[in-house]
Specification:
This protein is an all-beta fold and 131 residues long. Helix content is 0%, strand content 72%. A hairpin with a 6-residue loop joins strand 3 and strand 4.
Length: 131
């Protein structure tokens, strides 16, 4: 049985040094810090790798972030994995719970985290189940 959580969040992305240097600046590494409000409340910390291209509107990113908080009254942690693309302006994004990453009262958590950006504000819907 799936349950849906909704809410808002603020995100801070901070540029970090890459492990390797390149002549172009198409690759980037960023740290992620979020504050979540709503049915899922807490904080996240993580890392993002991104790639720009020379074609306007095309890019990609991957990220891992650890969530620590309360989900509909259950407290624990879990990990989200992001895979995002932009193909000449067409967006594609998948953010899922890493299997078996839930701890505490969130042990057995699975689900899909949907990020919504409208008028510069961030919100989410999180469709999840706990075994």
């Amino acid at each position: 049985m799936n349950t849906q959580a909704t809410g808002t969040f603020e995100v801070k992305l901070s540029p970090q040094a890459l492990a390797h240097s390149y002549e172009d600046s198409l690759l980037a590494r960023l740290s992620i810090d979020k504050t979540l409000h709503g049915d899922l409340s807490g904080i996240t910390t993580g890392e993002m790798l991104s790639a720009q291209t020379t074609t306007k509107g095309s890019a990609g990113y991957v990220a891992i972030e650890r969530v620590s908080g309360t989900l509909h009254g259950r407290t624990g942690t879990f990990v989200l994995m992001h895979v995002g693309t932009m193909n000449r302006g067409e967006y594609g994004l998948s953010v899922v719970v890493v299997p078996d990453s839930g701890t505490g009262e969130l042990t057995g958590l699975s689900g899909t985290f949907n990020i919504i950006i409208e008028n510069g504000s961030h919100s989410y819907t999180f469709d999840y189940a706990i075994d």
